[in-house]
Write a structure and sequence with these properties.
D-Maltodextrin-Binding Protein, domain 2; alpha/beta; Arc Repressor Mutant, subunit A; 290 residues; 44% helix; single chain
Length: 290
């Protein structure tokens, strides 16, 4: 009989589900999405060949097989974590954080403050990029964590949402066609939302200015050369003139999310909890149905 290897991450997820009594809270604790947690439990059940939990409105309960797996999982996870604690320093020598340039001034100060308290001897290496690239860099292990605009193609932990707004100099003629736009380079999630909204209303436009720097985008807008679109928090922080004109299409909200490297050091995961607090200090803590 061929031996099977059980993924230790599946065991950790299983134990966390039993501990939190919630797939959503498990996702938050392990920095994954709720569908990913469901898939991991299903994969573990497929591996052992039997259901591991039962769910009703009030509780998540291990089955008979689940109790056996739970007993072994606690020992395996305990030995794994003790080995890593003995072999690795608690804090990494360098922490690589990524975020889009337009989020840096708003979210980075609080994250750096938290890092200074929790990881005082760690070098903090900050990287600016568009959100889609940041997601790929976390997945590749080039970054430890990233704060980014959520992309439907990249599973991430939703933290908060911000409405997109139009911004322009008071003298800019936003009735002129084609509408001149100042946006991030191609690949930016917000750029896609803006051009899609204009196309759906058959509004002629052209990208007259583009950059990977938020300050350069703002310079083009402030100079009256183009209209831009950005999260309201970014616009307000920069003191931009927000345009509310029925001739312009409404823009969606963007989800701001957190990604953490799959094999992140426990100290990095601890810092990520602080990042969540910085992103959404007033997040709802209402209970959920399991």
């Amino acid at each position: 009989m061929a031996l099977l290897n059980v993924d230790i991450d599946l065991l950790r997820t299983f134990l966390t589900v039993l501990d939190t009594q919630s797939f959503t809270r498990t996702a938050e604790r392990l920095f994954r999405t709720q569908p990913a947690i469901s898939q991991q439990i299903k994969k573990l059940e497929d591996t052992v060949g039997a259901p591991l939990i039962t769910r009703d409105r009030n509780a998540i309960t291990p089955t008979t097989t689940g109790l056996v797996v739970k007993s072994y999982a606690e020992g395996i996870i305990g030995l794994n974590d003790k080995m890593l604690a003995d072999l690795l320093d608690a804090a990494p020598s360098i922490l690589r954080i990524g975020l889009p340039d337009d989020y840096a001034a708003i979210y980075l100060p609080e994250i750096l403050r938290i890092a200074a308290i929790r990881l005082p001897d760690t070098e903090i290496s900050c990287h600016a990029d568009i959100s889609r690239n940041l997601g790929k860099r976390v997945a590749n292990g080039d970054l430890d964590l990233a704060i980014l605009t959520a992309d439907p193609d990249t599973p991430s932990l939703h933290v908060t949402s911000e409405p997109l707004v139009w911004v322009a100099d008071a003298g800019f003629d936003h009735q002129a066609r084609p509408l001149r736009l100042s946006l991030f380079h191609d690949g930016c999630v917000i750029r896609h939302y803006v051009t899609d909204a204009l196309s759906r209303q058959d509004i002629a436009f052209r990208i007259s200015h583009s950059s990977d720097s938020n300050s350069m985008i703002i310079t083009a807008v402030d100079g009256g050369h183009a209209i831009g679109a950005m999260p309201r928090c970014t616009a307000e922080y920069a003191g931009m003139q927000i345009i509310d004109d029925p001739s312009l299409p409404g823009l969606p909200k963007v989800d701001i999310a957190l990604l953490v490297r799959e094999q992140a050091n426990p100290a990095v995961r601890e810092l990520a909890l602080g990042a969540i607090a910085a992103l959404a200090p007033a997040r709802s803590t209402t209970s959920e149905r399991v």
